[in-house]
């Protein structure tokens, strides 16, 4: 198959998000910053540094946003790389299209800070932001006079999906009710040896490999921990899934991660949790971050914007009225 120049450039850029077996961690981190840091944010989105206890985070503010809605975005980077600065440009586009404020925690990275350091940092950030949202909304009231509740969305990509979902698994029920949606881009969901990523004999993934995931897993935690639900969300228990928020997964058709995402969707829907798997034809790992080369990147983020801001009462209405060149799998409503 012949690929366009733009696609080849996109693949080259996206490969910097992946820690290859022979790449030094310091070089990997530098490459992410080099390829994804932008000094000027798109769409006039502004940002400020926010202190969430011991965790610093970016707070992105689009020109128009809902005062009730906040997205907490957990960046990927194979557990060992990435930062709020390198994800700032992508999240600025997401903030603009969703009319949402976005907080990007600067969580600690492996191997110096292995599991569960990232989860602890996300928890610390959430506690601070949740309290601030409650205080802010206490000054307002809904049409029926009742106090407004925070509307928080948890978003994550790649390896960031693992600590993000672990945080949700460990979240108390009264806090979990404020989580209205989980959005995952190309998520890592299973690090166990039995994962589908290790069984694919001929992978068509242009960006990510099983060897990368294997190396990064060993840097994140020890092998006997790979089936821990906080490490591999595929092993999440039925009890924890009670009242779990709706999950929307967006990824490329060519990803080595797709079978694990399908298995995760099956598990959630079997337990009555709404889970949508949105698969984009011919796309690769984290294609959404190659917006300079791929028109599908813009279309995919636009779809997320419609998902979050739509006032439709059902997912069926949403997908019936918003079509893009995708192959979508929609879970049945529980």
Beta strand %: 15-25%
Q: What is the CA-based Rg, rounded?
A: 19 Å
- What pattern of helices and strands is seen along the backbone? HHEEEHEHEHHEHEHEHHE
General form? globular
Main sheet makeup: 9 strands, mixed
Q: Quote the distance from N terminus to C terminus.
A: 41 Å
How many individual β-strands? 9
Structural category:
alpha/beta
Question: How many DSSP helices?
Answer: 10
Strand order of the largest sheet: 1-2-4-3-5-6-7-8-9
Structure at a glance:
The protein is an alpha/beta fold and about 325 residues long. Helices cover about 35% and strands about 15% of the residues. The chain has helices at about 5-15, 25-35, 85-100, 115-135, 160-170, 175, 210-220, 260-270, 295-310, 315-320; strands spanning about 45-50, 55-60, 70-75, 100-105, 150-155, 180-185, 245-250, 275-280, 325-330.
